[in-house]
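INFO batch 0412 | record 1 of 1 | parsing
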Amino acid sequence: MELVLAQQIISEFLSEGKVRQIEENNKGLINQTFVVWIEKEKKIKKYILQSVNTNVFTNHYLTLENIIKIKKSISDSSFPYHFPAPIDNKYIERENKVWRLIPYVENSVCFEKNIDKNLSYEAAKCLGNFYYSLRDFDAENLHVTIPDFHNASKRYFQFIDAISTAKQERVCESVLLIENILKEKETLIKFDSLNKALPKRVCHFDTKISNFLFDVNTNKVKALIDFDTLMPGTVLSDIGDMIRAYSNTLGEESSDFENVKADKEIINLIISAFLEGTENVLTKKEKSCLLFAGKALALLQCIRFFTDYLKNDIYYKTTYKKQNWVRTQNQWHLYCSLKNI
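INFO prediction complete | emitting tokens
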């Protein structure tokens, strides 16, 4: 990204300040992200400049409204973590892209995978506190910006449709895995049934480890980030995705499929920390479904990666051929492991 364009965009958010340096962060799968160094009154401060992927987040301005509502509610609560929302509560359009500027959380580090079991505990406690802080917020006041995001039935039928339209070579190499996944439909049916029965809450919907920023010195969580998927949902989505992602110590990019296994100790840490953070907010029924949520989300993510692979990789960013196929098999082995816990 050229400094001239960056300066034009930054000027829409900050009345003063000169862009001195810009560096792209390629870790995210969806949005385009830059770290920007801005000089103001002889002091240099970092910000996050981000281009929203409007092909994925088609209702991005409704997403912004959700973020603003939650930002206000969070600021009125005792949430003990940073909540770095877009500056000036706005997006702007430049070069046919939608841009936002976000505060940079100093002395923080982002982990791409769970390298320490204590990180699981800290992140889960932060998530639990997020739920506790929003316990009185009516989730129905939020827009559903990605309809059926965790609708297992819809994801299942998208998967079936992708099989029927995929290139023959991709289907042929996948026959056995397709057959195995089709046998697990009952897990998806149960997930949808529980989602209809459980209380609606404010859900983050993307609780992977890289969406928590940790203190560089203490490894305590400093911030929860990435709010494009804030919507009404149930506890299953957030805690399920956390169990799915964190218990897989090799990470979802690993091709060492035989060693992709769910770590029971991490799962127990997640559940205990989450319950500690939520205090008395969750119902008995919600508490009883937490482990199942992890199983369901592993299968659901497997299907999502698989569907994208069969559709020639149109959703998730890939850096090499068949990466979504690797991700698919990785999540399948994780699901099989979780089934045995």
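INFO post-check: The mean pLDDT is 95.
INFO record closed
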